[in-house]
């Protein structure tokens, strides 16, 4: 990866973002600890498998098992899918955020000095956004698009969450990596973070209020934050 494509420090990262996506409705960011295909969790084991029937069954089972849970009570399938995504179930949603510092945190939080982290940036125009009104079925929509969710749980609020909603392409016979999606591949930008800089970035982000405790509200996030502080 060319030297200029690595993030030198938090200040230069934010400054550079100011010049990206002037014509975009919104800028989305995603942090990963590896440069793997931009695919949702349901598609990663084998992108060639059409998982639609499996996904419908999984969501129905989630609703059955959590029928009294207020987080899912009376929610439509899109809202239920968002809750499922944020609590670890495999879905066709891929996490993004409107906060570039949050994406940077996810890129460096594994603290592996031997591997780089990556931040992806996606300028989003109005034509790329789908909605539950026009696309009520999250398993049946025309093209891979950006989904602006309801703020229906603490994590999505804390992480300023948005998503890309991915579909199985019957033409390509697979879920298509965003890097190879003809409509989106020229939009996805990427910056790297050197492994040896991860600990430095984590400390800087903590000073700015981005840490385990702020991103994962509740006892779990607090315990992980304390672990990090005393490591």
Number of domains: 1
Strand content: 15-25%
Structural class designation? alpha+beta
Strand order of the largest sheet: 2-6-5-4
Structure, explained:
It is built from eight helices and nine strands. It is an alpha+beta fold and 231 residues long. It has one domain. The strands form three sheets. A four-stranded mixed sheet has the order 2-6-5-4. The chain is globular.
Q: What are the defining features of this structure?
A:
four-stranded mixed sheet, about 15% strand, globular, alpha+beta, about 230 residues
Structure in a nutshell:
This protein is α+β, with helices and mostly antiparallel strands and 231 residues long.
Q: How are the SSEs placed, and which strands pair?
A:
Elements: H1 10-17, E1 26-32, H2 52-65, H3 77-86, E2 93-97, H4 100-108, E3 117-124, E4 129-130, E5 145-147, H5 154-158, E6 161-165, E7 168-169, E8 174-175, E9 189-193, H6 198-207, H7 212-215, H8 219-229
Parallel strand pairs: 4-5
Antiparallel strand pairs: 1-3, 2-6, 3-9, 5-6, 7-8
Helix pairs in contact: 4-6
